[in-house]
Amino acid sequence: MANQETGSVDRREFLRLGTLGLGGLTMPELFRRQEAAAGGLEPDTSVIFVWLPGGPPHLDMYDMKPNAPLEYRGPLRPIQTNVSGFDICELMPLHAKLADKYNIVRSISHQFSDHGGGHKRFMTGRNPKSPVEFENDAPATGSIVAKMIERRSVGVPNYCCVVEGGREHVDTFSLGAAYLGSAYTPFMVPGDPSAEKFTVPNIAPQLDVVGRLDDRARLLKQFDSFRREADQSGMMGSIDQFHARAMGLLTSDKAKRAFDLSLESPALRDRYGRHAWGQRLLMARRLIEAGSIFVSVVLENPYQSGVPWLKQGLYNWDSHAVNGHIYEDAKVRFPIYDQSVTALIEDIYQRGLGRKTLVIVTGEFGRTPRIENQIGTNTGVRQPGRDHWPQSMSLITFGGGMRTGQIIGSTNRLGEHPKDRPLTPNDLWSTVYRHLGIDQDHAFPDYAGRPMPILQSGSPIEELLPVA
Known about the structure:
By secondary structure, this protein is an alpha/beta fold. Helices cover 32% and strands 15% of the residues. It is globular and about 55 Å long.
């Protein structure tokens, strides 16, 4: 029966209301009760968070230093955009045409130079206990958002992550929910959405599962046995919520349509690019329109979807000289990135999402201002690259009702450190929480039962707040 104080439904009642169990059909009555318990709250804002793992080179993309010595500026040159004084890399001409539609933030920094520490520091807004490895000891922002809207159910996942196949484990990019529990990790959508046979797992019931679960009495007995074991481990709360959320997806026609890119016009799909990066970003926009609140998209390896592997190329944005030739790789990577991201910029505004949806495109840190030259592992020849550099980085952001065409903050003449308007990842997340209407001082108990505020520091970036 329903709990009178919370409106929740226990497991036996959950089954009696008409579900077929862990692999079966959804239960509208459960979701009606959940919405009633949540007071009918329907967030009217959303976030698309585009992650560039490895760390994009800020001096070669968004913070070019054409007057710096060659060993800093590199061979790429800036080009003028449609905003006076706003330059961009020559390999991103579509960015140049749309500079009035996004902002560059050039002055965010932190102190964690390892990929693991950098991921955790950026994703959680906290200094991690360990500067290495990727398992969070604090919840990632997406998990916090999922927790704050946990009773919301509109037929699509509240929190998704669209990622390369084989990279969908939550710890790969420090997306763990830590002390909030596994119920608040993202619904993972792995693979290449541009592939002909691409499918989204777990959004349609298997007929053999439905048949097996038709015996309600046997299923109840299995659940009761499982619960006795899970209760002892303290896992039941998370498992209940995870499966309640999953079962809604199993038969949601809304979810199936949201993931179905064939419903978009061929011309728009071409604009995004018929490759994994472009189609992932298009899927993110469809999920936001369908009702998702927080969608992460990972743009990692461009050498797929028919793009031949470059011997000097890089798997992700980790442009060490030993990994690849940063500038040969850029000739392939940057145009794909340019096409995909600018298509999303145009699409967000053309579809009237410019106030509702806040978009952030970033990696965990920047790259060393001084170029390194080493022997490449794959090429066997000396080639240029850049090392990790959390002391300065650049990102772009748009939507959320903000004024665009701005450059926020600056670095010194060599791109080494913030010069004007120094910021941290926490200031960015504070801006995100403000956009979503979430109180960053709200606290959750950590593993020891101590109240932990969502953010311990950070203030919204004024230049990115909505204009009237």
